Each structure stands twice: as C-alpha cells, then as structure tokens.
Amino acid sequence: MTKLLLRALAGETLPTPPIWMMRQAGRYLPEYRATRAQAGDFLSLCYNPDLAAEVTLQPIRRFGFDAAILFADILLVPQALGADLWFVTGEGPRLSTIGDAAGVAALRPADRVHDTLAAVYETLRILARELPRDTALIGFAGAPWTVATYMIAGRGTPDQAPAHAFKTADRPAFAALIDRITEATIHYLSAQIEAGAEVVKLFDSWAGSLKGQDFDDFAVAPARRIIAALKQRHPGVPVIAFPREAGDRYVGFAATTGADCVAIDNSVDAAWVAAHVQPDGCVQGNLDPRHMVDGGPGLVAEAQRITRALRGGPHVFNLGHGITPDADPDNVARMIDAVRSA
Ligand code: CP3
C-alpha cells in the first residue's frame, strides 16, 4: 500500500501525515470559478462528470494533495429521494420541505437514488483513471441527521430548530426519515465505491446539536448502520466519520460506529484529541479554516502545533471545516510546507 492516506487510515503512524482539505475544490481557486461559470450553476457542475472531475483535479494539480475528494454535494441525496433542490447565489441551498409522516412516506424508495446520481458515479470513474498514482480518491455523503435538517427546514439553519421540532412532535416519523436517508446513503456510498472511491467520508456537520439519547439514536446509530453495511459489502474500504462539534462525544465515536478515522472540528484542542480520541484510531482535521485567510506566522505555528501534537499516532492533516471563499491559495501552499517541515 503506497498511498499515504490509506496507510494512515489503516492505523499506521507516519513521520509526515497525508494532507488534504475539506472544500479543497472551491471558490477560493480562480480555476474553480472559471469552470463553474462554464457549467452555468453549481448543480449543473455537480451533474457534469467531465467538469466535476476537472474541478476535483484542480487542487491536486496546484498543491499535490495526498487525496482528492469527489466534487458533488451532500444535498444530491435529498434530490434523489424526490425533494426539489436549488441554490441561491450568495445565500445557499433551498429545498422543498418535509413536515410530517405523509411527507416522509411520499419520498422515493432508497434503492431508486441511482436514477438521479448516475452522473456522480461517472465522475468517480473518470477520476479513478486520471488521478496521479499516489493520490487517494475519497467519496462522501451527508450523515442522515445533517441531511434531514436540510430536508425538514428547506435550508441551512443555525440551530436546526425545525428538525428538532419535528423530532419532538413525531419521533416515529422523524426516525422513519432518518431510516430512509440511512438506506439511501448505503446504496449511494456502495455505488461510489464500485465506481472507484477508495475511502468514503460521512459529513455530520450538525451533529453538535444532538445531545444525550438523541446523539446515540441519530448520530451514532445511523453511522454504525451505514458503516456496517459498507464493511460487509466492501471489506477493507476505510470510512472517515465527521460528527462536527461533537465535543466530548468524539471520545469513543470510532469504536461505537466502526469508523476507521474520526474527523475533528477546530473547537477542541489537538493535545486533548491526542489524549482522548487518537488512542481509538486515526484522527483528521482541527486546523481553524480562518488561518487560510489570515496566513502569516499564526498559520505556520498552528499547523505545526497540530502536526506535532498528533505525531504519536495515525493522523491525517486537514482543516476543522471547509476552506472559505475568501482564503488565499498561497496560504494553502504555506500550510503544506509547514506540515511537511514540522
Ligand atoms: O470538499 C470538497 O471539496 C468536496 C465537495 C463538497 C461540497 N460540499 C461542494 C460545495 C462537499 C464534501 C460538500 C459537503 C457539504 N455540502 C456539507 C457538509 C460539510 C460542511 O461544509 O459542513 C454541507 C452542509 C453541504 C451543503 C451545502 N452546499 C451548503 C450549506 C452550501 C452553501 C454554503 C457554501 O459554502 O456556499 C453548499 C454549496 C457548495 N458545496 C459549494 C461547494 C464548492 C459552493 C457552491 C458554489 O460554487 O457556489
């Protein structure tokens, strides 16, 4: 096994961690903005395999990351389940909403998602052919809770209040929605692996707003079910789980879900992660994306502090969340140098 990312995910402690960035193909890159303009809009880009593969490759050509992440979006799954989806420039996603058990029952069957998502599999097949030999290919999906928050509210919400309200008003209907998304995600990620993804990542961006039993039922249990199904169908393909802002609940998350790696946001300290999360296995993330805007000595110091804190075990260098459109591409190169010289 030569790809650094696969070695780290298999539990190997490496002298230099593999490096990639969440949202590494994105608006901070002029070449991304040009291809996006060519595609028309964001969703047209997601469903155009040649252009989606092109923007996936752009940050690899520019920075030589150790991994490429498929260019797509977590909200393609709701669309494949029958929701209307559009993006409002400068604001974000909008979806038709689900408010009750009848809305959940009206969704398409989970195994029909391939009708809508076939173009995504084609993007992966192109990437599997075109990526450099040492670059690992990552597929992904949203975790059921995070996807459900968008399907219920019809948009991003700061506190996920509509989804919490639905969960309180009709817990069985809410659980049925989580189940439908869980099953769709198993079909989707399994097809991504068959198309060439070597690693898959589950993004639970809003996991931090689930507490106590809700965290167990709607963050841990769906992830465990998805990971178990994938491991059965595709033994040996590693899974990264990202229960963002899980705080104390990062501890033991890999063990209870079966994830090979836990991705960590930037609200916890790297030394704490080394002591409490890394003993369970590989960890990824933690650099505040703000450093990619600010740059300077702060970027170098923090990238090196994280690298050194996590050097004692398996580690994948990444940000704690996606790189922002106002980031300076030169800071990405500085970050990579800082990590490799730490
Ligand atoms: O990381 C990558 O480079 C791979 C592609 C990827 C995108 N979105 C492309 C994208 C991935 C893995 C995602 C995940 C995603 N999408 C998440 C989970 C991770 C996270 O950020 O918390 C969520 C919640 C979404 C939903 C979504 N997509 C939102 C809320 C938005 C609008 C906010 C924003 O950043 O603009 C998007 C749009 C989106 N997804 C863009 C990109 C590059 C920007 C679209 C554009 O070009 O205008």
UniProtKB/TrEMBL annotation:
Domain Uroporphyrinogen decarboxylase (URO-D): 18-27, 138-154
Reaction catalysis annotation: uroporphyrinogen III + 4 H(+) = coproporphyrinogen III + 4 CO2
Family under the similarity heading: Belongs to the uroporphyrinogen decarboxylase family.
The name this protein goes by in its record: Uroporphyrinogen decarboxylase
Pfam entry (one): URO-D
UniProt-listed CDD domains: URO-D
Enzyme class: lyase
PROSITE patterns per record: UROD_1, UROD_2
Biological or metabolic pathway of the protein: Porphyrin-containing compound metabolism; protoporphyrin-IX biosynthesis; coproporphyrinogen-III from 5-aminolevulinate: step 4/4
Protein localization: Cytoplasm
Cited function: Catalyzes the decarboxylation of four acetate groups of uroporphyrinogen-III to yield coproporphyrinogen-III.
Subunit structure: Homodimer.
Principal location class: cytoplasm
Residues flagged as site, Transition state stabilizer: 73
HAMAP family per UniProt: URO_D (MF_00218)
Binding residues annotated for substrate, in chain numbering: 23-27, 73, 150, 205, 321
EC number(s) on file: 4.1.1.37
Keyword entries, A-Z: Cytoplasm, Decarboxylase, Lyase, Porphyrin biosynthesis
Superkingdom as given in the UniProt entry: Bacteria
One GO MF term: uroporphyrinogen decarboxylase activity
